[in-house]
Amino acid sequence: xxxxxxxxxxxxxxxxxxxxxxxxxxxxxxxxxxxxxxxxxxxxxxxxxxxxxxxxxxxxxxxxxxxxxxxxxxxxxxxxxxxxxxxxxxxxxxxxxxxxxxxxxxxxxxxxxxxxxxxxxxxxxxxxxxxxxxxxxxxxxxxxxxxxxxxxxxxxxxxxxxxxxxxxxxxxxxxxxxxxxxxxxxxxxxxxxxxxxxxxxxxxxxxxxxxxxxxxxxxxxxxxxxxxxxxxxxxxxxxxxxxxxxxxxxxxxxxxxxxxxxxxxxxxxxxxxxxxxxxxxxxxxxxxxxxxxxxxxxxxxxxxxxxxxxxxxxxxxxxxxxxxxxxxxxxxxxxxxxxxxxxxxxxxxxxxxxxxxxxxxxxxxxxxxxxxxxxxxxxxxxxxxxxxxxxxxxxxxxxxxxxxxxxxxxxxxxxxxxxxxxxxxxxxxxxxxxxxxxxxxxxxx
Length: 445
Fold this sequence. Notes:
Layout lengths: L16 E6 L3 H12 L4 E5 L14 E2 L4 H7 L2 H6 L3 E3 L1 E5 L2 E3 L9 E3 L2 H13 L4 E5 L2 E7 L5 E7 L5 E11 L6 H6 L3 E4 L5 E7 L9 E5 L4 E7 L3 E6 L6 H6 L1 H10 L11 E2 L4 E3 L4 E4 L2 E2 L2 E3 L5 E2 L7 H20 L5 H26 L7 H10 L3 H11 L5 H17 L31
Parallel strand pairs: 1-2, 1-11, 2-8, 5-14, 11-21
Antiparallel strand pairs: 3-7, 4-7, 5-6, 9-10, 10-11, 12-19, 13-16, 13-17, 13-18, 14-15, 15-16, 19-22, 20-21
Helix pairs in contact: 1-4, 1-8, 8-9, 10-12, 11-12
C-alpha cells in the first residue's frame, strides 16, 4: 500500500489512490475512515458541494446491530455528545405492546441526519490518508482491457473532468447509485405498496421517551422516534389505499393518523418543527454488491423497505465489512477479487435473509399465520419478546430467530397465556444473557 502521509489533508492531484469512494454519506464516510486508518489513500467523492449536506428523507434510526460498528470506529461517543439518544423498541399490535426485558445490547441510536451526516463526514475528512472531494459528480468509470473497474471519471466544479484512479472503486451513492448503473451491476427490483410521510415535532413527547414506539395495525404502520433537541420524529407508512388523504394535506393527515393509533402518542399537544416530507415510491432494489474492481455499500447495494429502520445501521455495517475484507488486498497480501468475494459472502450472510422477509412484507399484506402467532405470544411472554427484540434490532437473522421463536410461541399458547380473557401472568424472563451464537447465521448467497 502506498504511503498515506500528506500535509494539510491534501494529496496531490496526480496521485493514485488505493480506494475511490463515490458518496460521502454514512456508508462512504465510514469506509473511508476505516480504510484511511488502515493506511490506505482514499478519495472520498460527493456531488454535493457542502460539507453540511444531509439526507432529508430518513427516520435517522440506527439499529442496535450497528452500535458495535459505531463503537469500533469511535463514532458513538461523538454521536451521543451531539445529543444522540439510546432507545429501545416498543411495538404495538392488536394483542398489546411488545416490550422486551431491558438488554443494553439492544439499545439503538437516534440522532437527526442534519447532525449525524456532517459529524461523520468531518471525522472521515480528518482521517490521515482521506481526501474529501466535494462538488464532484461521477460521469463514467475507467476500465482496463478486461473490463475491471480501475477508476472514476468525475466532473470538477469548474466543469472540467478528472479521472481518479484507484485499486478499488466503491459505490456508496445511494439507492439510485450512478456507480452501479455505470458498471451494469445486476439488480432486482420489487414494488413497494406503502408510502411514507414524516416530520419533526417539538413538545408532546411520547410517555416512554427516549424509547421508540411503533404501531403495527396490520397492515398500517406508524412510529414515534424521540431524538436530539427534544424533538420527536413522527412517521406514517400506510398502504397506498390511503395516499389521497395524505396528498391533500400531509401535515393534517400525519397528525390524525398518529392520534388515531391505539394508546396514541400526544402528537396533538406537539408543535410541528419541520416540513412534513413524503416519499411516495420506495421500490426495493437489491444489487450484487461486487463486480471486478468494484464494491457497493449501503443503499447502493441494498435499498430495502424503510419501514424496519435498517438503512442507517446497514450503511455502517456494510462499510465495516468491506473495509475488513479489502485491507489485506490493498496491502498486496492477496488478490482483490478474493477480498471482494469475501465481502460479498459476508454481506449476503448478514443481510440477505432479513431483506427477503422485508421484500415480502413490503407488498402491503396483512400478517400471516406465523407472524400472528409470534406477535401475540411476544405481547404476553418475556421469553418470546426477548428473542423477538434480538431479531427486530437485527442482532440475529431469521435463520437463528425463527427456530427459537416458533417453539417459544407455541409453548406460550399451550400455557394458555393468550386466552380471550387475557388471564395468566407473564412468566419470569429466561436466562438474562440471551443466547447468541458466535458464528453468523448461514443464508444462501
